[in-house]
Amino acid sequence: MPVLTEPPSMGDVLKYEVNPNYTREVITLLIGTRYPVGAVLGRITVNGKYKLATSGGTDGAQTASAVLLYPVDATLADATGIVVARGPSIVSRAGLAYDGTVDDSAKITTKLGQLAAVGIIARDGV
C-alpha cells in the first residue's frame, strides 16, 4: 500500500483564535518567494505589503506581526494571503516557518515575543 504524505495545513499551525472575523486579515504578500503555511511575516512600512520577518533591517518587516494560514506562491507577482494578525490566538511553535536570517534560538525567541505583542502566542505541543 502506498504511503500518502499530506502537506502542512492551517490546522497544523492555528490552534485557537477567539473570532476569525476579528483575528484574521487579508493581506498582500511581496513578490519573490513561495510563502509556506505558518510563515512568520512582517509588514513593510512604506507600502503595507508583507514578507517573511527578517532578523534585521529597517523596512518594518523585521518586526513579526502576522502568521500566514495558507500557502501562497508569490514568485512572479504580489499575491493575496490570509493571516492571523492579532489575538487572542494560539499557534503551534512547531508549525511556524521563518526567514533564513532567523537562524538561531535567540532570533526565534525574538520573533515569538514580537508575535506575542500582538496577541499571537506560540505554544509547544498543541
How would you portray this structure in words?
- The protein contains 3 helices and 10 strands.
- Strands 2-8-6-4-5 form a 5-stranded antiparallel sheet. A 3-stranded mixed sheet has the order 1-9-10. A two-stranded antiparallel ribbon has the order 3-7.
- Strand 9 (89-92), helix 3 (105-117) and strand 10 form a beta-alpha-beta unit.
- With 126 residues, the protein is of the alpha+beta class.
- The model has no long low-confidence stretch (mean pLDDT 96).
- The longest helix has 13 residues, at 105-117.
Helix and strand arrangement:
Elements: H1 10-13, E1 14-17, H2 20-23, E2 24-29, E3 33-35, E4 40-43, E5 50-52, E6 64-68, E7 72-74, E8 79-84, E9 89-92, H3 105-117, E10 120-123
Parallel strand pairs: 9-10
Antiparallel strand pairs: 1-9, 2-8, 3-7, 4-5, 4-6, 6-8
Mean pLDDT: 96
**Number of beta strands:** 10
Main sheet: strands, sense, barrel: 5 strands, antiparallel
Give the neighbour order of strands across the main sheet.
2-8-6-4-5
Low-confidence parts, pLDDT < 50 over ≥5 residues?
A: none
SSE string:
HEHEEEEEEEEHE
Structural class: alpha+beta
Distance between the termini: 30 Å
Produce a short descriptive summary:
The protein is of the alpha+beta class. It is 17% helix and 33% strand. The strands form 3 sheets. It has a 5-stranded antiparallel sheet with strand order 2-8-6-4-5. Strands 1-9-10 form a 3-stranded mixed sheet. The protein has a two-stranded antiparallel ribbon with strand order 3-7.
Keywords:
single chain, 126 residues, alpha+beta, five-stranded antiparallel β-sheet, three-stranded mixed β-sheet, 3 helices
